[in-house]
User: What shape does this take?
Amino acid sequence: MKKKTILVVGGAGYIGSHMVKELLTSRYNVIIIDDLSKGHRELIPGGMFIKGSIKNSTFLDTVFSNNIIDAVIHFAASSIVGESLKHPLKYYSDNIAGTVNLLIAMHRHNAKRFIFSSSAAVYGEPLKTPVTENHPCNPTNPYGTTKLAVEQILKDCDKAYNLKYISLRYFNAAGADKSGTIGEKHKPETHLIPLVLKAATGELEHIHIFGTNYPTADGTCLRDYIHVSDLARAHLLALNALFAGEKSAIYNLGNSKGYSVRQIIKIAEKVTGKTIAAIENEKRDGDPAVLIASSDKICKKLGWRPKYEDIETIIKTAWTWHKKSI
Assistant: This one.
């Protein structure tokens, strides 16, 4: 049987590079496109790389004309909440217009399967936790609004063009491949765990805690951290489900456990053996107090189970990567 070809959009990024590795291990043909504005060529573990932007319709047409694409996994997006509040038009352009370009190319070339990297940001401030997929969606920032808008576009494309999709709403991606060869590398870095570990290596003098009067046990916000390799495996299960004829669906992805900022710092100090200095700041606009997932649906429907549930283990894998990449 001929191997299927998967197009990974944004495959030079943090989650995208882990997805490429998972696909290669599962013996798919992999094509990666990335404009390298945020991704890193050296993180791509294999496959065929083509540099270019999904905002360029001519580029996309060339990629689809030259290759038979069996499915698309879409990671390319701007994803910093604070930036989205300051520059919403950039986010509407990158995340909505760019994705529409990609979907137009897929439709033109009869590509019918799509895995979308969505976000818990679609929910906004949770009314109750853990958050299930039927929780009302009321984003508190343009980033979340763009992810929700794309989900609606996908529903419309399913009805009109029979495009089958699975949208994965993940909470906080963390950790690194157990090999330590690929991991999280953002400029600027905004995610808590890598910032804490950069403080442990001495790359940063301290970290900032944004908000200390949230309605939580220690006053700092709670987040649900999911290992990046568990995320990649969930995408693979979603992909295989579409190939098996499953209908379009939306799933949450998280560990269903919440850890505060102060808890993450304390665990990172244990893992690294370093003291990590922190400065307290005012809370940021658009940051919910608590975001914890219910992943029951994907566990029941697709048989997904996280391998890295323990937060200390997740931080250890990230620490292995950060020590190597200093």
In short: The chain has a mean pLDDT of 95. Residues 61 and 105 are 6 Å apart (CA to CA). Residues 88-108 form the longest helix (21 residues). DSSP finds ten helices and 14 strands in the chain.
